[in-house]
Each structure stands twice: as C-alpha cells, then as structure tokens.
Design a protein that fits this description.
Blueprint lengths: L1 E4 L2 E4 L15 E3 L5 E3 H4 L4 E5 L6 H14 L6 E6 L3 H11 L4 E4 L4 H5 L3 E2 L4 E2 L2 E5 L5 E6 L9 H11 L1
C-alpha cells in the first residue's frame, strides 16, 4: 500500500490488515515500562490511534482529540502507538495533560505486523483501528496523506456501536 507526504509517494511495509480480520496480537511497553498486549486490552472495544511522531502538530492534535473523546465514551479502551521513545511520550503527555495509554514501537514490530511501517522515514503511517472485544477489526483508516488528520467522526461512530 502507498500513501503520500506532499509530492512524495511512500510505501508501507508489512502485512496489511483489513476490516473483518482478527487483529494480530502485539506487546509493547507503556510509560510505566509495563508490557501491554492486545489480549490484555480486549476486555472491551479498543481504539488504536497510531501516529508517526507525537512531537509534531497533527499527531498532537489527533492524540489530544482522542484523549478528549475517551472521557465521554465509557466501556472502551483508547491507546496511542508511535515510534517515539518512552521519554518523548512521557514528556509530551506531561506538557499536554494527556492521560491516555501510550505505547512505544521503537523497533517497529507493531508497524510491520499491521502494514504501517514507512521504512524510508522510520515512521508509522497515521491510522486508526477500532477492534471489538473479540479482536476483530471493525474499522480501519490509513490516512492517505501523512500530514492529514483522520476521520474522527467515522472512527468514533464505529466505536460507539460497540459500547
């Protein structure tokens, strides 16, 4: 799959995941250095918010928006995944007042397993996945232009159907 960044065409590396498929398990560390697996999250529907770099404007806007929405949607888990280090994520959360679960994919294991790795830039593609409690992907958006925001309303509408 390809996306763009301005005039540049970027190829995503890894296994593309689609609606209707079981989401593959993953384990990434959070800000407390705890290993968090998808299996642990699936006690309720999950929204995976994937951003290229938390320290950039659009990624910040996107993560703050989902963090804000998390307060009004009970019975769902909201998780942000980025390539940033634990320290970068912790500093950003402290500065922005965000308390969402943050997972770091510095080795790009998640990125490859979900077909989201932009190898040429060392980033993850901006995307949103909504999973039901069984781990089935019910919504997926891989944003076609890396610098655009996702369709918040579409993702949140699908999530609300599950809670």
């Amino acid at each position: 799959m390809n996306i763009t960044k301005g005039e540049d065409i970027l190829t995503l590396v890894g296994t593309e995941r689609n609606v209707g498929e079981k989401a593959p398990d993953f384990t990434l560390n959070n800000l407390e250095d705890q290993a968090i697996s998808l299996g642990q999250l699936l006690t309720k529907p999950v929204l995976l918010n994937i951003v290229p770099d938390i320290d950039t404007r659009v990624c910040s806007i996107q993560t703050k928006r989902f963090n804000q929405e998390a307060a009004s949607i009970e019975g769902a888990a909201f998780v942000t995944i980025s390539k940033n280090t634990k320290e970068e994520q912790a500093n950003w959360c402290a500065a922005e007042g965000v308390d969402m679960e943050m997972l770091h994919d510095t080795e790009f294991t998640f990125g490859r397993n979900y077909g989201l790795l932009i190898e040429s830039l060392g980033l993850l593609a901006r995307s949103v996945f909504v999973l039901d409690k069984d781990g089935t992907i019910v919504y997926r958006e891989i944003v076609a232009e890396l610098t655009d925001e996702p369709d918040y309303n579409a993702a949140l509408t699908e999530l609300r159907k599950l809670v």
